[in-house]
Every structure is written in structure tokens, then in C-alpha cells.
């Protein structure tokens, strides 16, 4: 079914459209929440929270972005609120760290750099949760800058600058650690 049709049905309160949205996107919402929170129970809570929000939140959704981008934005916001409330900083999981390493060090240098995954995670953990999640969505989930700008409600230039600063920070963190070790 076309996204615009689904969107209209959601705005009309259709449970079938909500069920279809769940079938299509719940795994992605759960995956993103888990990657941000690193806790399965909390990720499942976020999943439920996001889909409970959908019927009300969809009324303000204008359809200028894709439904999955909008759901990612709801998910990121819910996760960030949870992280702020708990004042907990979670680290990114190892599964796609190699992609992040390539982006941080560059494709040619990443294989030559010897690094400790635990140390890399410590460097990533130094970043604010929002920046960590932005880096994850860009490098590991392959979202484009435009989608990130929509999710985080900031200009594309700001997204690019934050990503660049984050990569530089992690690169320098690892270099300083190696020089001091």
C-alpha cells in the first residue's frame, strides 16, 4: 500500500493501517532503540511507547518525509528522553563497529590501524548520546544526511559538522590513548 494512503488511513484512525505500520517498521524501531539503549527490555518499552504515540502524533505529521524517517525521529526522541532521565550513556554494540571504524579512519587506513574494540567503544561513549546515535544511523544504518537532518530537526550542514567532529574526536581519542600507552 502507498505511504500516502497509509498515512491518510492512520490520520483517520484506522487500526488496520496501524497494524500494517507495525508489521513494516516495528523491527527497525526495536533495533534502533536497542542500539541506542543497549537493553532489550528498555528497547521493547520504547517500541511500545512509539507505537502508542503514533495515532496522536500522526495528526501533526505532514508527510514531508518518509514514514520510516518519521518513526526513526519518534524513536530517537523517545530514547534520548529515556537516556536523559536515567543519565545513562550507552555504548554502541560491536556488530557494525567495523563500518564506523572505516568512517572514522577512512577506508584505506581502517585495516592498517590496530585498535581495541573496547577502547573504540570507550571513545564512542565519550560522545553525547544524540551524536552517538547520529553517527550510528549514518555509518552503520547508512541513512543519508538529509534523513538525519529530518530526524534530528537540524540543518544538513549542522549534521555534517557534528558527524565530522565526532569522527575526529574518536580518531584523536584513539591516537592519544596509543601515544600514552
Could you describe the 3D structure shown?
The chain has 2 domains: 3-86, RNA polymerase sigma factor, region 2, helix turn helix motif (Rna Polymerase Sigma Factor, Chain: A, Orthogonal Bundle); 94-180, Arc Repressor Mutant, subunit A, CATH 1.10.10. The chain has 181 residues and is mainly α. The chain is built from 10 helices and no strands. Helix 4 crosses helix 9, helix 8 (129-140) crosses helix 10 and helix 9 crosses helix 10. It is elongated, with a radius of gyration of 18 Å. Mean pLDDT is 82; it is low at 88-95. The longest helix has 25 residues, at 156-180. The chain has helices at residues 3-11, 15-37, 40-57, 67-86, 97-105, 107-110, 117-125, 129-140, 145-152, 156-180.
